[in-house]
Amino acid sequence: MFPRYFGWEVPCETGPKYFIGDTLTRIEHSLRKQVREALLFRDESLSKEEVREQTSKICSDFFYRLPEIQRLLLKDVQAATRQRNPKRRSSSPIPVSTRPSSIASPMNSI
Questions:
Q1: What is the pLDDT of residues 47-80, one digit of tens each?
Q2: Contact predicate 54/38, CB 8 Å
Q3: Which one of 3, 6, 13, 63 has the lowest number of neighbouring Cβ atoms within 10 Å?
Q4: Angle at Cα 99 formed by Cα 67 and Cα 35, nearest 5°?
């Protein structure tokens, strides 16, 4: 999602699908931990089951919306690219490599 946020990950020879799946699994683990802590901080009277249920719902909703978040981010990148190059009128998506270093450049320009 955000290159270098969780470390210096680089896709290896296993392929981008494995890399993305592994990264999302690690993000989910971290997100669940943070949501659980936030719920307990907000309301210490919640039972373990209530925390577990609310955490699952919040995380599931977030991951369900990831494709829409990706679409919005791509739209922002395209808008930024058109501002730098007004002659670019194509509505086709900007090709983005799966390498984190190549994703960082367009994202940093926003």
A1: 999 999 999 999 999 999 989 999 999 999 888 8
A2: no
A3: 13
A4: 45
Distance CA 29, CA 25 (A): 6
Neighbours of 32 (CB within 10 A): 15
DSSP per residue over 25-74, as a string? Answer: HHHHHHHHHHHHHHHHHH-TT--HHHHHHHHHHHHHHHHHTHHHHHHHHH
Residue with tokens 């450049």: 105
What are 70's two structure tokens? 């990706």
For the entire predicted model, the pTM comes to 0.54
Helix, strand or coil for residue 84? helix
Q: 91 falls in which pLDDT band (50, 70, 90)? A: low
The answer to whether the beta carbons of residues 54 and 39 sit under 8 Å apart is: yes
